[in-house]
Amino acid sequence: MKLVLLSGGSGKRLWPLSNDARSKQFLKVLNNKANENESMIQRVWSQLKAVHLSESSLIATNGSQVDMIQNQVGLDVPLIVEPARRDTFPAVALSATYLFSVMEANLNEVVAILPVDPFVDREFFQRVKDLELLLRQSDANLALLGITPTYPSEKYGYMVPEPEESNKWIRINSFYEKPKKQLAETLIEKNALWNSGVFAFKLGYLLTLLEEKGFPIEYQEMLKKYADLPKISFDYEVVEQEEQIAALSYDGYWKDLGTWNTLTEEMGIQKIGKGILHHNCDNTHLINELDIPVTVIGVSDVIVAASPDGILVADKKQSPHIKDLVQTFEMAPRYEERSWGSYKVLDDTLAEDGQTVVTKKFKINAGGLWEQQLSPSRSEVWTIISGKGELILNKEVIDLEAGTVLELPQHSLLTLRASTNMMLISTQKLSSEIKAEEAIQEYESPMKIANYQ
């Protein structure tokens, strides 16, 4: 059995900590048994290791998340990298071709697909294993894992079983996506299950389906044709069109930490970062990624979150509306983590001459290697704040230490190697044809991006 974890997301629902470059699964806001902050993806990967499933697991993601995944889970985790952001059907299709033509998996191999960020107990993954047996014992083409509902939620999809059920599995009759409360109550009376987003199939089944739809089954060809795949979920494109579907139920602990109110219920700590959360605040959480303190007094049932991307103060029950509001923002992420470290935008200013000046703080990890080439429209001034390293600037080797100031002209080819943890301030000056939002993003070496594929 192969497990493919889907790591995507637009980073809107947990704004301002999440953004296009840092989706919710990477936020280190959960508290583990060692009293350390960990992310959702770190928690899930440790659970997979505990039940001996990590060796057969892969993560499907996009290029912008590769560094974050490797930083948090490890460099040896197998990755399937999408050439463009699409939806779950293209991601699953690409994963299937990778398993077939790169890993040379057997057509009878069972493939389980699951989100990278469920908040569950280890027993959940044991139940995922049972999907393989279900596919082999039944005539089903798809096997789903449903969650026994605990209340009539309007946030989840529902799977309605056939009236006559097997003692071993459930035959699925129909699906309802996020019904209103009254309908949800009726569905629960019919023994409907929440859709967990976990499903399994035999590899040959999906490859045949791709061929019928006119798509390639070889990985390299799929990469070339990826933009031609419909931008649609696997549920809509495949699951709801399939007649032979069976499911298993799971009645253990399961929660989608997709909103601030559900996430804070599982955080374990009420304050992260610099600031004061007064004792008269009931069920209020403060998460601060800024270097300035935030003080919260006399408010209850509130989330206060601050990052370089913005500040949120919201009633927890109203926090799910943040996704719709953030859609109106047109701004690039002002904080990103990369393989070599991280950076945050301190300031961006449009000068009178039309040029944009962007100031960033970079943190480079000891041993980190950072390569880039400045465009013809960009020059920089670096000030080394702390640490030591070496810069190769257009084949000239320059030693770096605290206090070093460098001017980097346009077209410069840079390779920075940090011998210790380093911090530097970069003031970037960009010509008038470069938009401020484009200037804020820090682009990787084209060679590195090519190597992802």
Largest sheet: 6 strands, antiparallel
Separation of termini? 24 Å
Structural class: alpha+beta
State the shape: globular
DSSP strand count: 29
The third-level CATH topology of the largest domain is Spore Coat Polysaccharide Biosynthesis Protein SpsA, Chain A
CATH architecture of the largest domain: Alpha-Beta Complex
Arrangement of strands in the largest sheet: 20-21-22-29-24-27
Mean pLDDT: 90
The level 1 CATH classification of the largest domain is Alpha Beta
The percentage of residues in β strands lies in: 25-35%
- CATH homologous superfamily of the largest domain, by name? Spore Coat Polysaccharide Biosynthesis Protein SpsA, Chain A
Q: Helix fraction?
A: 10-25%
**Alpha carbon gyration radius:** 24 Å
Detailed description of the structure:
- By secondary structure, the protein is α+β, with helices and mostly antiparallel strands.
- It has three domains: 2-255, Spore Coat Polysaccharide Biosynthesis Protein SpsA, Chain A; 268-326, no CATH class; 340-452, Jelly Rolls.
- The protein is built from twelve helices and 29 strands.
- The strands form seven sheets. It has a six-stranded antiparallel β-sheet with strand order 20-21-22-29-24-27.
- Helix 3 (88-101) crosses helix 6 and helix 3 packs antiparallel against helix 7.
